[in-house]
Specification:
By secondary structure, chain A is an all-alpha fold. Chain A is about 45% helix and about 5% strand. In chain A, the strands form three sheets. A two-stranded antiparallel ribbon of chain A has the order 1-2. Chain B is about 35% helix and about 15% strand. In chain B, the strands form four sheets. In chain B, strands 1, 4, 5, 6, 7, 8, 11, 12 and 13 form a nine-stranded mixed sheet that branches. Chain B has a two-stranded antiparallel sheet with strand order 2-3.
Chain lengths: ~775, ~475
């Protein structure tokens, strides 16, 4: 086994004298370089190791860059020329074998050996050829182009429509007419608040004859507390939010305060730049408020492991790497994670730069050794009085004690221990004790260590193989980070949103677009790099990005702009002419029909049945779950079924256990909360049908809706109309009416009781494609 | 109008092929969106198996007490482990486990050769030994992480971090499933607790959710929400579904949304599953002899029942059955706890091979038996008077059977004590690549583009074990 490559510090101390030596031997050396060495390097090495393309951080451009070396440190050790990294690599001594997949000829190796033994002489005038920032579109600052000229001017409601229409006209396509009013109302309700309109809201809107009736609805929805809940859920996907640690033990953690923070920030329309700064570095702001500390839970949502026998440092490193990858996806729209093990294959992101970003997030006061096991998941912000804290401490010590007793007993008895009375008693005692948890919140936050942790390149992404040390820094292809001293997380956060960064605003508005239309202007919402999809409307993307920043990073203003556009308000019915020319509807000759997200399905059923609790925020809740669904992992966790209105809270408040998420969420494509998710897939499967047809909760919603329909009206026809209005915001048409009347007759013939018939009809309503879909 | 809808449907199929789908064979499976109803899809090259049953022994079985016979280790029992074997190695429980030089631990079990092939099995596995000539044994297997959760994730998904698709998802994504009324990828569990890392082990990761492993229970509803709601009879359920279908068709007429056809199909398949699911777990059709062979008892949650269930699943065309049995984590004691778990597992495992064979299914079914890692050649003492073994990731063993593999053969080897591979090491990626290869899939071509990168089960590693599969 080769010894790991360590940094050759000696070089730094030695370099001054060394260079003097080289100067004296210069002439012969330079000649040798030009006659023999250059050819070997050019033929075999420079394609991957130049200033333009410095794989593993190594450039063979000039003497200086060679001395500096790459991720493994200097290419050769001036004190011990025989142990040069470069020579060992071409000799295939050790784990690094260069060039990849083949070996140089012996005489070529001899040339390099001689050259190194001469002290790597090279001509002095080989200037650095480092290219300035790439010409790739995504790295150029966005700018507002003039609005394109269009023919069908009367269709246009705002600038968005000019861009969309111009492109459609270019393809000789026409946009669709506006959707009918009740469709528009349902759509904007579901998109802005995640709740369908009530029958009263529908009636009020349809009766409002004023020209700005729709705008009034939009303003009302943007001001609703449910707006923040809906848009928080989109953000929580990115934040890989979950209520447990993940991995093996998967114990509950306190992090819901962070969810509350997101909801409130969105409801207050906190400018997006501040939204980003507080989440990434709220702890580093001067005199941070409690809220600003809670916000830093964003990057503490990473899974964490504390099963027996682990190396804590390994999982701490995983969490830091996750922060870098998530930051790359969420803010920069770059697949930075690709550079964890090696330089990015396609985009200008080196492995070294990955670890420069890593260094920003590597300094949190987290547990990194076995001795601190009991401090697991620190740092916390403890919210409570001193008395509450001490009560909590006593309680927590007792938890540890019972857990320890259980472990001991488990080791003594065999099998699952279900039959062991003592073990059973202990487990019950633990559950009981957990239920009596004193009211103290310990929310996970960021906190810097007083002393910087050293950051290194991890060779091959392996944390045990340390390469050269790195300091915090940003991607060189993007605008430089201007700070007087060593930059920290706060500087980094400010850099992301300083307006000069060409990616942040584009990536953000693109993701919003995706939520309103089902796909982004750039379809690969987390990859704006060279391997991503091209923007369908690049000028629109830029216009929106600039507008977003100009309007003070206001998310509500941008949302209003989008939902009041003619583009958004179009009908979503498929059109043969458009389908032929643009089968994916990328050009938006119509709106798209989108199956509702998992949580919104629940929220919709709760709304129409009237069961919905409109309470905003607070700790996670435990609505009914199919028996056994949360016991698929090592530690059996109690699902303490919520009572009262907490049984009927919105889907985003459902307690999320990483190793066993609620099936009604997971089966409908909610993310597992383990890695950042910037776009949910929308699948359409039999398991979904089983849930919405048969699940205890689904049936309960149908029963309650059935009773509501029955008690609201007398005749079958009136009841059907009420059901349709409640669930679908419209009246049934004639064909639907006929079909339902037949169903009612058949059920009555089978002797079904009335109440049951209306439950069945409600099951039908809550399973209709129209109900499950944002129109 | 009908005509228009049909034509729109065609465009939609095209759209999915061109847009939603990545590369490779997966696109065909995706076009259907119902992984489980997709009929067999094209492979990269002719397959030699159709189905996989992965018997996952969670916790890390002690290969040195089961089927890796090490006379030298037995001879030098209780001697300090030579330094050369420990140098540069990392183990779990570093702080507590390796304070003093750990001592070699020879197995206390009796080993004997079995079958014509003469494979070694200890007295803990008499039944598995009795089908010795069906097994192909892999020694010197290495994995990357010595903690249970991450190591399980690695074996199942090719990554120690949660969030990647598991092998069963990759396979159903690649070639779909032959079953029309059951999911293509089914998960079964037995033992005192669930496997660590839970649902992340059968996650579809970034692949469509329809490729997720579906947990089946051997008692109660086999699938969550499979039964009608309380009090809803068969007729009412069917009539309700008929109305939903008819109303959805009307919506499709007005919107032209092809996704509605998929939804109607999904509801119909759900309905079929409501019949096929209970039928699947109803062991009444099994004769007494079969039940006895497995040691299966109807209505009881057990490994034996799950083995029988696995056979019934592959019989019905299910592509990938992942069965977990906990717990094999014998740090402390290799006597009673190990005897108990082997007693649970030995007979049903052998019965599964016999049963598959007598039904002519074994040739086209691959059975894998193994854990997330093995256990160390040196002993671990946590309580005085007892000795167990720690996690070992550098050389452990996996058994395979069926799929036309040469029974009674051994591949790979570890050194005299079982610390490291003695020959070329076998990596987890190699095993994964080999399983895909047997299914007719090239592991370097079964990829899915996500976050700008073509991901695959075997990441950047994996070599098909050609000595195994020819």
């Amino acid at each position: 086994m080769p010894a790991p490559v360590f940094i050759r510090w000696s070089l730094l101390r030695f370099s001054a004298g060394f260079i003097a030596f080289v100067v004296s031997a210069q002439d012969a050396g330079v000649q040798f370089y030009e006659q023999s060495v250059q050819k070997v390097l050019r033929t075999n090495c420079v394609a991957c190791h130049s200033d333009k393309n410095s794989s593993s951080g190594l450039s063979l451009q000039n003497r200086e860059s060679i001395l500096k070396g790459g991720n493994r440190g200097s290419s050769f050790d001036a004190q011990d020329l025989s142990s040069s990294v470069l020579l060992n690599a071409v000799r295939h001594h050790g784990d690094l074998k260069m060039p990849p997949g083949r070996k140089l000829k012996d005489e070529e190796i001899a040339v390099l050996e001689k050259w190194v033994s001469m002290g790597v002489p090279m001509p002095a005038n080989l200037a650095s050829a480092k290219t300035s920032s790439s010409t790739y579109w995504a790295f150029q600052p966005p700018r507002k182009a003039d609005l394109p000229l269009v023919q069908k001017k009367d269709w246009i409601r705002n600038p968005i429509d000019s861009f969309i229409l111009a492109r459609l006209e270019k393809e000789k396509l026409s946009p669709s007419a506006g959707a009918d009013l009740r469709t528009q109302l349902r759509r904007v309700h579901l998109d802005l608040t995640g709740l369908p309109p009530t029958a009263e809201e529908t009636a009020a809107f349809l009766n409002d004859q004023s020209p700005d009736a729709y705008e009034k609805v939009v303003d009302r929805l943007l001001a609703s507390p449910h707006y923040g809940e809906r848009w928080a859920r989109h953000w929580l996907d990115i934040a890989r939010y979950a209520d447990t640690d993940g991995y093996t033990i998967d114990a509950p953690r306190d992090i819901w305060k962070y969810r509350d923070w997101v909801i409130q920030a969105l409801n207050r329309d906190m400018p997006y730049d501040q939204f980003v700064i507080e989440q990434l570095a709220g702890d580093l702001l001067p005199n941070p408020t409690t809220d600003q500390l809670i916000a830093t839970g964003f990057h503490r949502n990473t899974p964490s492991n504390y099963e027996g026998g682990i190396d804590f440092e390994q999982y701490r490193v995983e969490a830091v790497a996750d922060r870098v990858e998530t930051t790359g996806q969420a803010f920069l729209g770059l697949t930075v994670g690709c550079a964890r093990c090696h330089d990015h294959k396609f985009d200008p992101i080196s492995q070294k730069e990955f670890y420069q970003l890593f260094a920003f997030f590597n300094n949190i006061d987290e547990v990194d050794k076995e001795a601190d096991r009991k401090l697991f998941n620190k740092p916390f912000l403890v919210l409570g009085t001193d008395e509450e804290k001490s009560t909590f401490d006593v309680w927590e010590k007792q938890v540890y004690k019972i857990e320890e007793d259980i472990r001991k007993r488990e080791d003594m008895v065999s099998g699952d221990g279900e039959s062991d009375a003592q073990l059973k008693e202990l487990r019950e005692k633990l559950n009981e004790h957990r239920r009596n948890r004193p009211p103290l919140i310990r929310t996970m936050i960021m906190k810097e260590l007083p002393q910087q942790r050293e950051s290194y390149i991890h060779l091959g992404g392996d944390f045990t193989r340390k390469g050269i040390p790195v300091t915090p820094g940003v991607l060189s292809v993007l605008p430089a980070l201007q700070t007087s001293s060593a930059p920290n997380r706060l500087d980094f956060a400010k850099w992301l949103v300083d307006g000069k960064n060409p990616l942040t605003a584009r990536v953000t508005v693109n993701r919003m677009w995706q939520h309103f239309f089902g796909q982004g202007i750039v379809a690969t919402e987390n990859d704006f790099g060279t391997q991503g999809e091209k923007a369908t409307h690049p000028e629109l993307l830029d216009w929106l990005a600039v507008e977003f920043v100009e309007k003070g990073w206001s998310q509500k203003k941008l949302h209003k702009l989008i939902v009041t556009s003619a583009t958004y308000r179009q009908a979503s019915d498929a059109r043969l002419d458009a389908a032929a020319a643009d089968p994916g509807n990328h050009l938006l000759a119509r709106q798209n029909r989108l199956r509702l997200d998992a949580e919104i399905l629940r929220d919709s059923s709760l709304t129409v049945s009237g069961l919905l609790s409109r309470k905003t925020g607070g700790a996670s809740v435990y609505p009914p779950i199919p028996a056994g669904a949360n016991n698929v992992t090592q530690v059996k966790r109690e699902w303490a079924l919520s009572k009262g209105e907490d049984r009927y809270r919105r889907g985003l408040y459902t307690f999320f256990q990483r190793s066993a998420g609620h099936p009604a969420l997971l089966v409908f494509d909610a993310p597992e909360g383990t890695v950042s998710c910037t776009r949910r897939v929308r699948s359409n499967t039999p398991l979904q049908a089983l849930i919405s047809l048969n699940d205890e909760s689904s049936f309960e919603f149908a029963e309650v809706l059935g009773q509501k329909i029955m008690s609201g009206q007398e005749s079958d026809a009136d009841r059907l109309r009420l059901g349709w209005r409640l669930a679908l915001s419209r009246d049934p048409d004639e064909k639907e009416m006929d079909r339902m009347m037949r169903f009612i007759a058949t059920r009555r013939d089978s002797g079904s009781e009335e109440k049951r018939i209306w439950t069945s009809i409600s099951r039908v309503l809550l399973n209709m494609d129209e109900f499950l879909t944002r129109p | 109008m009908n005509n228009i809808n049909e034509r729109l449907l065609q465009y939609r199929t095209r759209r999915q092929l061109f847009r939603d789908c990545g590369v490779g064979v997966g696109k065909v499976a995706l076009a259907s969106m119902l992984a489980s109803s997709a009929s067999a899809q094209k492979t990269h090259f002719p397959s030699r198996i159709d189905r996989v049953i992965y018997l996952f022994m969670a916790g890390g079985p002690s290969q040195l007490d089961l089927f890796e016979y090490k006379p030298e280790l037995i001879k030098r029992d209780s001697q300090p482990t030579p330094d050369s074997y420990l140098k540069g190695k990392r183990f779990a429980f570093m702080d507590t486990f390796s304070k003093d030089t750990p001592k070699l631990l020879g197995s206390r079990r009796k080993f004997a050769r079995h079958g014509k092939s003469g494979l070694w099995f200890s007295d803990l596995l008499p039944e598995m030994g009795s089908v010795a000539d069906e097994w192909t044994v892999l020694h010197g297997v290495c994995t990357e992480n010595f903690n249970h959760g991450p190591a399980k994730l690695f074996t199942n998904t090719g990554s120690v971090r949660p969030g990647r698709p598991s092998m069963g998802s990759w396979i159903t994504y690649g070639i779909g499933s032959e079953s029309k009324d059951l999911p293509g990828f089914v998960v079964l569990q037995s033992g005192p607790r669930g496997p660590r890392s839970g649902a992340a082990l059968w996650s579809s990761g970034f692949l469509p959710t329809s490729q997720q492993g579906v947990p089946f229970r051997s008692v109660g509803d086999p699938i969550l929400d499979l039964s009608n709601p309380h009090g809803v009879d068969e007729t009412e359920q069917r009539q309700t579904l008929d109305v939903i279908r008819d109303l959805n068709r009307m919506t499709q007429q007005t919107t032209g949304d092809a996704e509605i056809s998929t939804r109607i199909d999904a509801y119909e398949m759900a309905y079929r599953m409501q019949t096929s699911g209970p039928e699947l777990i109803d062991f009444a059709q099994e004769d007494k002899k079969t039940l006895e062979m497995y040691g299966a008892e109807p209505g009881k949650a057990s490994y034996a029942n799950n083995c029988l269930l696995a056979r019934r699943l592959v019989e019905r065309g299910v592509r990938f059955v992942q069965l977990y049995h906990t717990d094999w984590d014998h740090h402390q004691d290799l006597t009673k706890p190990l005897e108990e778990v082997t007693r649970e597992v030995d007979r049903p495992t052998a019965a599964l091979l016999r049963d598959l064979k007598q039904r002519g299914l074994l040739d086209r079914t691959l059975v894998i038996w193994g854990g997330e890692f093995g256990r160390t050649p040196m002993g671990e003492v946590r309580e005085k008077g007892q000795v167990g073994r720690n996690h070992h990731i550098d050389a452990y063993s996996i058994l395979m059977a069926g799929g036309g593999l040469q029974g009674g053969s051994v591949h790979g080897a570890s050194d005299e004590f079982g610390f490291s591979p003695a020959e070329k090491k076998i990596e987890v990626f190699d095993v994964q690549a080999t399983v895909l290869h047997m299914l007719g899939l090239d592991h370097t071509k079964l990829t899915y583009k996500f976050q700008g990168r073509d991901f695959r089960l075997t990441d950047v590693g994996g070599h098909v074990l050609h000595p195994l599969v020819g």
